UniProtKB/TrEMBL annotation:
Keywords: Leucine-rich repeat, Repeat
CC annotations in GO: cytoplasm
Protein name per UniProt: Leucine-rich repeat-containing protein 57
SMART domains hit by this protein: LRR_BAC (SM00364), LRR_TYP (SM00369)
Upper taxonomic lineage: Eukaryota, Metazoa, Chordata, Craniata, Vertebrata
Name of the coding gene: Lrrc57
Keyword Repeat: yes
Pfam families per record: LRR_8
Length: 238
């Protein structure tokens, strides 16, 4: 990646507000981007080899979308949490174990994707985010879903392909949760809170590939109520 090529990308980004440089083997976040802190609305540096996100990321105060899928990030800087306009944050396929303590300050965040990282729990910081619609935590190392999840405002929560064997009953209190994906985990039927069926907003529950047969789910109390929500939702989109 020569300087002239980078320069051309920077000039385009200055006009469009979009900086996209994917699959170029970049080992670090391009320092030259700091010239565009007030221009950029979108940064996409997917499929590179970036190990660190520098603190200067906090200066991109107009940034709406940050995509760094398939890099080598092991941690995120606290400065990231200053991005008050950030709506989309996609960090699939990195090596993240946790989120910054102040992550709950990303008050505009709508779509968060952390599939294929090394998270061991559902981060409590997500519960303060009022506009969150979709959270993808699939393909991590999550073993249980804690009580804090009841505060989560998301509409869709994807926990497929983790190692979940326990789920807090509080998940049925999520005020907006409609879609819950739990495929390919380690759930026994007895560990699935029945209130998800009988007493929640959830209208799509995906639980294939756990330690029970799907038909056993139909025998649980509250399954009829769940099916009513499921069918009503299907009709709405038909």
């Amino acid at each position: 990646m020569g300087n002239s090529a980078l320069k051309a990308h920077l000039e385009t980004a200055q006009k469009t507000g979009v900086f996209q440089l994917t699959g170029k083997g970049l080992a670090e976040f391009p320092e030259d981007l700091q010239k565009l802190t007030s221009n950029l609305r979108t940064i996409d540096l997917s499929n590179n080899k970036i190990e660190l996100l520098p603190p200067l990321i906090g200066k991109f105060s107009f940034l709406k979308s940050l995509v760094l899928n398939n890099n080598k990030l092991t941690a995120l800087p606290e400065e990231l949490c200053k991005l008050k306009k950030l709506e989309t944050l996609h960090l699939n396929g990195n090596h993240l174990r946790q989120l910054p303590a102040a992550f709950g300050q990303l008050s505009a965040l709508k779509s968060l994707s952390l599939s294929g990282n090394q998270l061991r729990t559902v981060p409590a910081q997500l519960c303060g985010l009022r506009h969150l619609d979709v959270v993808d935590l699939s393909k991590n190392q999550i073993q249980n879903v804690p009580d804090t999840v009841g505060e989560l405002q998301a509409i869709e929560l994807n926990l497929n392909q983790n190692q979940i064997s326990q789920i807090s009953v509080q998940i049925s209190h999520c005020p907006r949760l409609k879609v819950l994906r739990l495929e390919e985990n380690c759930l026994e039927l007895s560990m699935l809170p029945q209130s998800i069926l009988s007493d929640s907003q959830i209208s799509l529950l995906a639980v294939e590939g756990n330690l029970f047969e799907i038909k056993k789910l139909r025998e649980l109390e509250g399954y009829d109520k769940y099916m009513e929500r499921f069918t009503a939702t299907k009709k709405k989109f038909a």
